[in-house]
Design goal:
- The protein is an alpha/beta fold and 249 residues long.
- The protein folds into two domains: 168 residues, Rossmann fold (3-Layer(aba) Sandwich), CATH 3.40.50; 68 residues, no CATH class.
- The strands form two sheets. The protein has a six-stranded mixed β-sheet with strand order 5-6-7-3-8-9, with helices on both faces.
- α4 packs antiparallel against α5 and α5 runs parallel beside α6.
- The two termini are 35 Å apart.
- The model has no long low-confidence stretch (mean pLDDT 90).
């Protein structure tokens, strides 16, 4: 399998009043073509800093990022849905295409179909104030995927949702990303979420962050999130990852 992105020996040092602060130290991994890679770690370990470096919003102190394409298109889904309150659902979902000046009748129809596929067909003219948290996040994800990115980055996008909504939306998220064919990196504190969505799970150590473990998530033939969570192998992986994180607290 080809690699969409290679992260090589990334190090990030911040300058503070107290001196140098090393947030990330010698982090290396690959993002495979079409893969969903989940990254977990304790609070403050540098997960979001790493994602910002991958997105090009920050620069590493040391190390390199090598992409399959010279200038990959990256879409970044933040913790908040960032929907514009004066735009309706369809207009919000089309915003990325509009900014790229690629919104036409064909692409707009494609976005409409994506919204309909994930339970938002009756809400195309609704405004964000009338949507539930889960619905807002679906719109935000469809907006991110509508521009057909090479790489999708998700920074704890479901942290504000209740447990039931997180479980149900995990299924949609996995399905949407896989159907799009894009490669994705999702950051989360939730081990269940990481194992439900990810093809692999990377565990980061506490600061300065290093790659502590990488787990292959081997239930690709089990489409349902709830079915995955009932598998003995799921519980084995959960306990292993929990043990890794527990050592860092």
């Amino acid at each position: 399998m080809n690699n969409k992105l290679s992260i090589n020996n990334i190090k990030k040092i911040f300058q503070t009043k107290e001196g140098e602060l090393c947030a990330i130290d010698d982090v290396s991994f690959d993002l495979r073509d079409g893969e969903i890679l989940a990254i977990v770690g304790t609070s403050g370990c540098g997960k979001s800093t790493l994602l910002n470096i991958i997105a090009g919003l920050d620069s590493p102190t040391e190390g390199t990022l090598l992409a399959e394409n010279d200038n990959p298109k990256i879409s970044y889904m933040l913790q908040s849905d960032a929907l514009l309150p004066w735009r309706n659902v369809l207009s919000n979902a089309c915003l990325g295409l509009e900014l790229e000046r690629k919104l036409d009748s064909e692409s707009k129809l494609r976005v409409e179909e994506m919204l309909k596929d994930y339970g938002l067909g009756d809400f195309l003219s609704q405004y964000p104030s009338g949507l539930s948290g889960g619905m807002k996040q679906r719109v935000a994800l469809i907006r991110s995927l509508a521009i057909e990115p090479d790489i999708l980055l998700l920074d704890e996008p479901f942290s504000a949702l209740d447990y039931y909504t997180r479980v149900t939306i995990s299924e949609d998220v996995h399905d949407m990303i896989k159907k799009s064919g894009t490669s994705a990196i999702i950051i989360t504190h939730d081990i269940h979420e990481a194992l439900s969505i990810g093809d692999r799970v990377i565990v980061l150590s506490s600061r300065p962050s290093k790659v502590k473990n990488i787990y292959e998530v081997d239930f690709k033939d089990v489409p349902s999130v709830l079915e995955k969570r009932g598998l003995p192998r799921f519980n084995e992986l959960y306990k292993s990852i929990w043990g890794d994180l527990d050592e860092e607290i």
